[in-house]
Target: alpha-L-rhamnosidase
Amino acid sequence: MTKSRLFFAIFSYVAFTFFLLSCNNELNQAPASLTISEGFKNPMGFHDDKPTFSWQLPVTTDVKSQSAYQIVVASSRELLPNNPDLWDSTKQESNQSTFIEYKGTELQSRQKVYWQVRYWNQDGHVSEWSDINFFELGLLNNSDWKAKWVGLDTAKDSIKCVRKFLMHRPQCLRKGFEISTEVASARLYITAKGVFDVHLNGKDVSDDVMPPGWTPYNHRIETLTYDVSELIASGNNVLAVELASGWHSGRISRGNALYENFASPKILCQLEITLKDGSKQTIISDDTWKGTTNGPTRLASIYDGEVYDANLEMPNWTTTSFDDSTWIQTETDVITDSVKLEPKRHNTVKTRTTIDNVKLVSAKNNTAIFNFQQNIVGVPKVKVPMKKGDTLKIRFSEMLLNDGTFYTTNYRSAKSTDYYIASKDGIVEYTPKFTFHGFQFLELSGFDQSANPEASWVQGLAQYSNFDQNGTFTSSHEKLNQLQSNITWGLRDNFFDIPTDCPQRDERLGWTGDAQVISPTAMFNYDMYSFWSAWLQSMRETQSEHENGLIPFIIPDVLQNNNASSGWGDACVIIPWDLYHLTGDKSLLHENYEMGKKWIGYYQSKAKNFIPNMHSFADWLQPFPTKEGKEGNKGDTPRDLINTAYFGHSAHLISKIAGILGKEDDEKKFKDLYKAVANAFENEFFDEQHGKLKTEHETQTSYLLAIYFDLLKPETKKKAQQHLLATIKKADNHLGTGFLGTPILPKVLDDMGEIDLMYKILFKETYPSWFYSINQGATTMWERWNSYSQAEGYNPQPMNSLNHYAYGAIGQWMYERIAGLASLEPGYKKIRIAPIPNTEFLTSASASVKSPYGEASSSWNIENGEFTLDVVIPPNTSAEVQIPFGTEANLMVNGNNFTETSNVKLISSDKNVVKLLAEPGTYNFQTKF
Ligand code: RAM
Model:
């Protein structure tokens, strides 16, 4: 062999060996979509020093599941992945890729933490490391704050408004300061007793709407953290804050003693600057700040609107060139230990959508009415010609009266009107800042009379807590799609920092019952886990005021009436349970467990022989109540029956939660309690022999609660089911349910196999039904099944919101059963794809959700006698797929006759359903219909 040949042979051997080795060790694609805790991506000012970590596996044919993972966490980017100084989980054999607890070195306020992760797939092949993600903690302890609460005493010259409540003048506050050298980085930590808008050197620090939002301020005020490194420079700087009452000192808090009786709003801020020379400089709110109430925003109230006088504008007051020598010195308060200052734990409200599809409805008598064609929540942006000194009046309404004027009776005492006083002739632009309205129509008056109103004068800025869409639902039926639209608008409109009952009248409060029924539907449609868990913290804090475990009707509790309602307070057990089912995050169950137990204690304290005697709003707003007017609001399902049913149900859920948390004694104790309550329930309210209600009125909801909460013996239950069907038949296949019965109606009928009946009820066009409001022109869900009718006009009761989400709870069934996409094991670890098509009404339906493991979807279609089902199952999950037509023999999978493979296995097959177990991937199932 010549030298060159020998060289070539050796070279080829080495190259081939390398090739083989590299094949064996081929790295899987890196994990992606890294988040911490309830879904945060690289958050700034994070609230939790013990976060959890989640990631998703890539969608490729090589990766079906995870067999192990490794997380590395470090105090700087450079240390990753090899020298993680904070935590190295080391390789953990586990298929868990969500909510892994951090178990490293204790973290501190302000700390910036970097992390990345890799996984091993089902064959033991390791992946590449993910991108490096980070989180930065906010100020976690009150002792981190050197600042003081600062503001002007606006209580002393405040105005008496509706119901003699105080209305504070908004204030402008500012502080100039000098920086000696160049800035490396800067963080602004800020909050308010009130709501604020902050500027640095003339620039907006953020586009947050009405921060810090609403918590039980007597327990906790949330703080915001902003990276302001780019907004500060060496030399003179100025920090400028506009401050208004918001929830804290506004009428909405009803002058509550716990909220310091309309105390003057104050801000708290701490600007921490790191200079390029390594030194630090901190600017705090203290008595060197100056303020004025002579700014242009004269009044601002959540319920009543805003008054803005452009003649009082103070050009450049947020910049260094402004002279504040006429401003007055502020007053200060020290921070107290009793009110915790904690970084905001969910997204602030933002302007999410601009509606400019506006119609000019009428223009007469110098008044113009505009239609946004959608009931929204937020503020308008007006661009209107005006004459100097004139006042533009902006009114709102959800719908019009027959004569084309505004229906505002349902705003009750909320004035919901904005005023703008012009300082010049010409076009003015105005967007209110410290209020929000619920409206579809807007009326302008006071504009330049020589101008012809145009639709382009107004836009609608839809505002809500800044969460993203999480799911989609669509079908072949226009009205069902409109219902989905009404549900999702109703949700966005009512998630303004807290879950509200309605967004427009003098209420807008965190009613627990409404939230309890809507949270699963909300979670399907929006990525709002952190929103709910934040509100649950407020609930825990509020419950701590009550030794007997009472959960008030609303959170934050501005009513302070020491009262609780069954079906409402149960939100403290039901919401965590539902969220766990959809996220798989056990820490949520831990966090809320004691609260749930105490709530059961409350029931026990009210119960005699397991029948609680307590308040209940009952099956709120049931249609056709036997009592008239306001009296009828509570429907006909007896209060005691509802109390007992929820007592039993919550005890049952707590027992299940105890089981999941490994608390065996509690699991047994609460199961026994549930059984005892169920027994008492059946004896008290049911005729055992006939399974019929013994109560005065036989309502659908009585049967639904008894059946869905599993409170009857199997024989009684069977009979009760027949009675339920009879009540529905008697109502000509209409629902007869209020807030509590409606969400469980589809679930019960579904369990009974009464799918066609449920479709009939859902697709009813006449009152009471979901489509009835759509037929009357609704673009959101209504508070009442008959809030309005074209024939009879508005329901005469002033409690008549046209934007109330409770009846939107049907949304869950639309996802889970019409389209067929549900979580079968917590957090979609196992998915159930089980559509139940009804060909009388639909030819197709589809839904998708961003599950914790990635996108999952189910989409079916019936055409030319063929049923097709397209399914996406994300990695690290599996799915039980139920094909509702055809047989195993005529089933095609991805174009081929069905035979079992490693990806699809047969679970069972009968003449109705073929059940399969499918591994992650994309599938097309086809069968004869
Ligand atoms: C109304 C609210 C809410 C309901 C309570 C009982 O005032 O709007 O929807 O939960 O009453």
